[in-house]
């Protein structure tokens, strides 16, 4: 794997706020806990070929491993670059996606604050375009002030484009 | 609420009858079960139910007709409807992409038409007036299209014809429209009847009959059956095409291309040129051999039933397609030699999944059942087809537009002027990373999710450079548009 982690041709990409890892960890942790709860009824099953406690234990182990490893991997997959007239967003580790969104094509902008994001003062900038495939491009893990600054800048750009 | 209130109108009274005819069968569908119990009492109940349904339907039709009102204001059309909960919809003229006029058989009987106002929004029913008098429909359309300039501007010079589908050409295009859709329709009908208990399978399919039928399956009967199927499919294709495309005529109007067509249901649509995003030239395997193509435009606000595109010429030679393209402001496709594909190693990605399945099937044939070998051969053939499809998946760029062609049997050439791009994305899956490949996808407004513009499996560095190039071309094209005074 390459050291820069974003594939070839990566310019100076801005990483997300490191606190985003914590948000992802909470989400993965909760999902893992839910999976373990769902696996608990297996304790009652008698026809399993293995000891019954192995099922929730395996789920717990897998959940723990995912919670430990995946958030950092996910976080490293993200990056963005603010250009003069466009924003370039990279995401994904397994399937890597590089998206160029021209500011002139943005129809409206959201700044969304999830419950766990709020705990860390983070938000998600969502750019909506008139297209159909991947028409809404999210950029999570931005400090709220930064997300709002970007939103205002893009808004000003759109207004310029209209005149 | 201030200013002079525009005159409020109701729909044509004939729409009462049409609506009634629409409502009653729906209500009756529930009662068919009653009739199917087939004893005397059940039948009497059904008749009572039918009378009740007819009466209630008439009442409902009358109420909804009474409560439906529309008004054409100075810059907007206002539609009020709803029997219980009222809805008031205001559609400003400058948001209207198109006004389509459609005349079904019943509408023609009464001299009326259905007017559909398309705004390019997400809602299915954006503004529909079903039905108004024909003259009213035309006046309304001219009013909406020409906005404040009024209907006077509409009575312009005669519109030059760009394309027309004559009688013999229409029949020929029907032959190419081979379709077995009617089989699905029959299957659906049988299923419906089955649901109401009107088909007694046990009565028809007795074991004795099944036994007798096995002797009928011979080479001859299979051949004759296949022949019948082909003939039926051909006839169905011709009928469908004639019904839809009878009297097809494409003319140039001030704002776009006007298309009229239809045998029983006449429809009239304007393809607004300002809203066209992508031009598509499609051809089937047989039609292509004879030089027949279909030209359509992906248009914002196009009817989704037709796949978000509007057909400008359903069956035309290339020398007829090119003038329409030029009229619509699209550049002609460059010569074949300008097109290029991805690197040869991309073949691995196109064929590998099928070859892997072929290996699995071969192993199964070896270990379990020799018949799995047939599947293995089929997978190898699919792999070959994928490799051939790779060969025809090519693209090129020139000063004005991006051109992408794909499809082994049904070939589709998409022409996208740079200024129509929305988002450019480069994606690389795990296998693509191993092969240093990447896919560029260009999103456009109103594109069908599965049919978007994609250049699959280019060299990774070239794909990154290509995406940057597309974005630069987009910026340049937009800047040129702005400098030229917006949309002229």
Topology:
The complex is a heterodimer of chains A (163) and B (488).
Chain A: H1 19-39, H2 54-77, E1 79-82, E2 86-91, E3 96-102, E4 106-112, H3 115-119, E5 122-129, E6 136-143, H4 144-162
Antiparallel strand pairs in A: 1-2, 2-3, 4-5, 5-6
Helix pairs in contact in A: 1-2
Chain B: E1 8-9, H1 14-29, H2 32-36, H3 40-67, E2 69-72, E3 76-81, E4 87-92, E5 98-103, H4 105-110, E6 112-118, E7 128-133, H5 134-146, E8 161-164, H6 167-176, H7 181-195, H8 201-204, H9 207-214, H10 219-245, E9 249-252, E10 256-261, E11 266-272, E12 276-283, H11 285-289, E13 293-299, E14 309-316, H12 318-327, H13 346-367, H14 372-392, E15 394-397, E16 401-406, E17 411-417, E18 421-428, H15 430-434, E19 437-444, E20 453-459, H16 460-483
Helix pairs in contact in B: 1-3, 6-10, 13-14
Summary, kept brief:
In chain A, α1 packs antiparallel against α2.
Number of domains of chain A: 2
- Fraction of residues in H or I helices of chain A: 40-55%
For the residues shown, what is the average pLDDT of chain A?
Answer: 86
Assembly context of the chains: heterodimer
Q: Tell me which protein chains meet in the greatest interface and how many residues each side has.
A: A-B, 25 and 32 residues
């Amino acid at each position: 794997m390459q050291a820069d982690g974003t594939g070839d041709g990566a310019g100076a990409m801005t990483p997300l706020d490191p606190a985003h890892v914590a948000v992802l960890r909470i989400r993965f942790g909760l999902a893992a806990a839910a999976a373990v709860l769902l696996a608990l009824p297996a304790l009652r099953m008698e026809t399993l070929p293995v000891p019954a406690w192995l099922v929730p234990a395996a789920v717990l182990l897998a959940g723990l491993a995912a919670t430990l490893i995946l958030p950092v991997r996910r976080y490293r997959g993200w990056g963005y670059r603010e250009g003069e007239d466009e924003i370039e967003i990279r995401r994904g580790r397994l399937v890597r996606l590089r998206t160029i969104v021209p500011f002139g094509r943005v129809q409206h902008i959201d700044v969304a604050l999830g419950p766990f994001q709020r705990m860390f003062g983070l938000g998600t900038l969502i750019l909506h375009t008139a297209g159909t495939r991947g028409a809404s491009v999210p950029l999570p893990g931005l400090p709220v002030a930064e997300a709002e600054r970007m939103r205002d800048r893009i808004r000003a750009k759109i207004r310029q484009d209209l005149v | 609420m201030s200013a002079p209130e525009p005159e409020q109108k109701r729909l044509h009274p004939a729409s009462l009858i049409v609506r009634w005819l629409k409502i009653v069968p729906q209500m009756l569908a529930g009662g068919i079960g009653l009739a199917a119990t087939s004893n005397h009492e059940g039948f009497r109940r059904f008749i009572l139910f039918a009378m009740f349904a007819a009466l209630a339907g008439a009442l409902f039709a009358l109420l909804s007709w009474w409560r439906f009102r529309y008004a054409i204001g100075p810059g907007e059309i206002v539609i009020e409807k709803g029997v219980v909960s009222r809805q008031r919809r205001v559609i400003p003229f400058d948001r209207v992409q198109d006004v389509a006029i459609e005349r079904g058989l019943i509408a023609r009987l009464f001299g009326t038409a259905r007017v559909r106002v398309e705004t390019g929004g997400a809602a299915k029913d954006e503004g529909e007036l079903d039905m108004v008098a024909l003259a009213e429909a035309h006046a309304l359309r001219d009013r909406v299209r020409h906005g404040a300039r009024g209907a006077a501007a509409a009575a312009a010079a005669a519109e030059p014809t760009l394309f027309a589908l004559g009688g013999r050409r229409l029949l020929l295009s029907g032959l190419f429209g081979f379709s077995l859709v009617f089989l699905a329709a029959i299957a659906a009908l049988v299923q419906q009847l089955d649901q109401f208990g009107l088909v007694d399978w046990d009565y028809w399919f007795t074991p004795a009959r099944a036994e007798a039928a096995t002797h009928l399956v011979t080479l001859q009967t299979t051949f004759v059956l296949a022949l019948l199927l082909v003939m039926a499919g051909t006839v169905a294709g011709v009928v469908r095409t004639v019904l839809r495309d009878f009297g097809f005529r494409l003319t140039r109007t001030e704002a776009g291309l006007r298309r009229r067509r239809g045998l029983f249901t006449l429809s009239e649509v304007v393809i607004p040129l300002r809203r066209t995003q992508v031009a598509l030239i499609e051809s089937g395997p047989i039609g292509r051999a004879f030089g027949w193509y279909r030209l359509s435009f992906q248009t914002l606000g196009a009817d989704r039933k037709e796949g978000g595109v509007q057909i400008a010429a359903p069956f035309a030679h290339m020398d007829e397609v090119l003038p329409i393209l030029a009229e619509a402001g699209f550049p002609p496709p460059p010569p074949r030699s300008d097109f290029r594909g991805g690197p040869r190693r991309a073949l691995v990605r196109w064929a590998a999944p099928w070859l892997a399945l072929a290996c699995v099937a071969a192993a199964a044939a070896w270990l379990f059942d020799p018949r799995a070998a047939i599947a293995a051969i089929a997978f190898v053939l699919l792999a070959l087809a994928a490799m051939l499809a790779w060969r025809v998946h090519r693209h090129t760029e020139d000063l004005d537009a991006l051109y992408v062609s794909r499809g082994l049997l049904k070939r589709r050439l998409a022409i996208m002027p740079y200024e129509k791009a929305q988002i450019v994305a480069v994606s690389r899956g795990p296998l693509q990373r191993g092969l240093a490949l990447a896919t560029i996808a260009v999103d456009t407004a109103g594109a069908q999710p599965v049919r978007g513009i994609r250049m699959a499996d280019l060299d990774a560095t070239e794909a990154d450079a290509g995406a940057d190039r597309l974005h630069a071309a987009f910026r340049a094209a937009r800047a040129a548009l702005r400098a030229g005074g917006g949309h002229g």
